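## Example pair
The file below holds two records. Each record gives the amino-acid sequence first, followed by its structure token line.
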Amino acid sequence: MTTLPLVFKDGHLFVELDENLWLFDSGAPTSFGAGTSIEIAGEQFRVAKSYFGLSEATLSSFVGVPCAGLLGADVLGHFDHLLDAAGGTLTISKTELQHGGQAVRLSEFMGIPMLKAQIADAEYRMFFDTGAQISYFQESLISQFPPAGTITDFYLGIGQFESETYHVPLTLSSIAFTVRCGTLPGLLGMTLAMAGTQGLIGNEILLNRTVGFFPRRSALYM
């Protein structure tokens, strides 16, 4: 078991490794960054120099925070994680960690975790994306919720885009949240639809509680 600094800055979650920040991104299939390898909790992992043309320099520009790279599902999926964003710590382990909260079941698509969210009396399948500063919901009923302004965001392989956002109430396994949701642009939105999902849940649900993210056991505990 290893405890690492967890930094929430400019809407994004970062893990500090050897005094460098790495974006903690469950929604990205592939890790990348400076150098050819990283060590986490005694495990060595090779990382790509870029992903879809996105380097650590471009990533730093998009998130507004200098960082060494991105930790994606290919690395995060090897561990159990306890994320305490308020306390600024990430506990990570190759053995099973425990969390006494409510379980939210996860499935996956190409290594990316998915969960089910209840919105306006209907159930929707959503990606769980800790790299996203807000959530996204592709159904037209999003415009029925209170407006929350325009945001500039980015997505791997797409780059930066703008979206109108709304305050959307939702429930995850009986736990109620109100999250800021936008709509993803054309090609990206169609990619979600091809995966059988209606959006994604961003890191906003992690900020005011300690969360257990256990991808090897297909569970999120809150």
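Second record, same layout:
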Amino acid sequence: MYLRTALCAASALALTAGAAMAQSTLTIATVNNGDMIRMQGYTGDFTEKTGIAVEWVTLEENVLRSRVTTDITTKGGQFDIMTIGMYETPIWGANGWLVPLDDLSAEYDVDDILPAMAGGLSHEGTLYAAPFYGESSMIMYRTDLMEKAGMEMPDAPTWEFVREAAAAMTDRDADINGICLRGKAGWGEGGAFITAMSNSFGARWFDMDWNAQFDTEAWANTLNFYKGMMDESGPAGYATNGFNENLSLFNQGKCGMWIDATVAASFVTGDDSTVADSVGFALAPDTGLGKRSNWLWAWALAVPAGTQQEAEAKQFIEWATSKDYIELVAENEGWANVPPGARTSLYENPEYQKVPFAQKTLDSILSADPTDSTVEPSPYVGIQFAAIPEFAGIATEVSQEFSAAYAGQQSVEDALAKAQAITNEAMEAAGYR
């Protein structure tokens, strides 16, 4: 912790000194997760090298998505760089809202970006955002609690095993919940989790004619299983918990299992975790239907069209998503703390191969296929989302209904009926049906 604090202080001083001589200032919107906060601590290195100052607008995930979407669609011009993901990038690139990243330097080595990440951040073969890190999702679990329960985590477990293990690890008197999962409303929060989970239960958002599918047995099975398991073994108030809330619970020793972004592995095994020495990893669960419940995502940096500082913005993107940046973090904080999932060379590095979660992260990423994510055929690309412009609005409303069911404010049946109506009405208005 001392090294990180000292490093951040030194970086802040360098940033202040660099800002005094800076010829320009970039305004960057980003998400308030650990890797992005860590990057801000190193920004002085960029300013010192380039003379370009950086002003950060750091927001909670749902707020970030709302702010950058409003800014890009209204041409507000508040930001020179935006942190966006695989859902927005191809759609916004196709609309001409993003600057193509087709002229990055040879030293940057764009071909080193993992194909799954480059593909998800491109439109018609042109890269429109560079991945700061890439992720899938997997199980993180307490090896000591699993052993105490007399159970052994398989490498590729089923949901039934997970539910059984969660119940066995739950100890309400000791404030230990067997499992922590996202329930928070928002298409990229609880909505992303339940959609990925539903794939493994045989559900899908739409049939091939864009009819909503929430009135199916597969969706009923998904939500009833989730709510039943979380009521049995989850934390109080799970309906409002997202990534950061569950990370905090896990690090405090209050979760037996957590299924979430692979990027969390460095935090649950890091200095801020009280259980760092007893964490194991496994693939996201399935139900035997041929699809696991892991997603595919990248938090990436993009340049909105119309910025007056396009060249400077590209300089920052090259710095933040480069091999050199990975080396910088590794040198100061160790290989376990570098941004994962973005570059092929990272997984070929013998030092990184020693990191206990490195291979499981890569296996999870490689097993996620956005073009074939559902048991029955679907008309959309995407795993935890459907890559159509209307999805974000629809899925935010649907996730609100689901969260209300988790909280006991309505039945699962009512939530699914409302989701069906919301989705079909929106798709008809958009001309899909």
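Notes on the second record: DSSP finds 19 helices and eleven strands in the chain. The first strand starts at residue 24 and ends at 31.
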